[in-house]
User: Which sequence fits this backbone?
């Protein structure tokens, strides 16, 4: 099993490069649109006076990629007629999904970090740094992998889930406090936002950048969210696949 994982990573990297070279205009236009959205939000918020604000945008873009790209990849496989090959591989589907998510999120993080740093530098928006924010961001992404498993499972069974991925990504931006403070949201929405790992992760990362203390209770709360979201994601993924195998999997795009 362990010897297959590097091969899967190498295959996904080759696939990523092939897709970028084939759809380079779409990739560039998507990056420009993201830049316009982030620039508008940054210039209309507290980002110009808060050196920790940029980490929220980076966590949001990376989280959106983590959650959606496995589903997009599965949809592409169904469209190209290669999805059956995934099911026939000796490696479990969950392992393949994990490799897909990790590959895309690593590449996306590198690209998004460079892009956001350049964008904020051009906008003269301050950017603070802290090594303490790194493990917080990593744990946040691990917790959000639970969403990846659920959405990937739904895509395996029903194929077309891109709209759900986009909806979830923008809902996270709205509910996580990246742009709108939780105190400004209606109480039910604020409660939902506090239950999202990206909310606590963003706040802890910003506290580290601003030099504010981060308590052990916050670390424990983030660790609990990691366990809960991963467990829920795995259980739901398993149940969705079991349902698909029993009632049929939609193989058409």
Assistant:
């Amino acid at each position: 099993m362990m010897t297959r994982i590097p091969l899967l990573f190498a295959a996904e990297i080759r696939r990523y490069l092939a897709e970028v070279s084939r759809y380079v205009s779409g990739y560039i236009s998507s990056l420009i649109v993201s830049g316009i959205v982030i620039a508008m939000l940054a210039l209309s918020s507290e980002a110009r006076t808060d050196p920790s604000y940029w980490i929220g945008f980076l966590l949001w873009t990376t989280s959106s990629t983590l959650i959606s790209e496995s589903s997009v990849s599965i949809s592409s496989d169904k469209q190209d007629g290669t999805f059956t090959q995934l099911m026939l591989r000796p490696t479990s589907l969950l392992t393949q999904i994990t490799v897909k998510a990790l590959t895309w999120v690593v590449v996306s993080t590198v690209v998004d970090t460079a892009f956001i740093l350049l964008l904020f530098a051009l906008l003269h928006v301050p950017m603070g740094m802290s090594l303490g924010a790194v493990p917080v961001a990593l744990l946040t992404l691990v917790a959000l992998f639970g969403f990846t498993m659920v959405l990937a499972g739904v895509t395996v069974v029903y194929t077309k889930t891109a709209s759900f991925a986009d909806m979830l990504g923008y809902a996270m931006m709205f509910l996580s406090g990246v742009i709108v403070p939780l105190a400004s949201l209606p109480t039910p929405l604020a409660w939902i936002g506090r239950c999202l790992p990206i909310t606590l992760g963003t706040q802890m990362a910003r506290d580290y950048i601003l030099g504010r203390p981060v308590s052990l209770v916050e670390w424990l709360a983030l660790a609990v969210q990691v366990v809960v979201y991963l467990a829920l994601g795995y259980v739901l993924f398993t149940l969705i696949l079991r349902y698909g195998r029993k009632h049929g999997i939609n193989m058409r795009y």
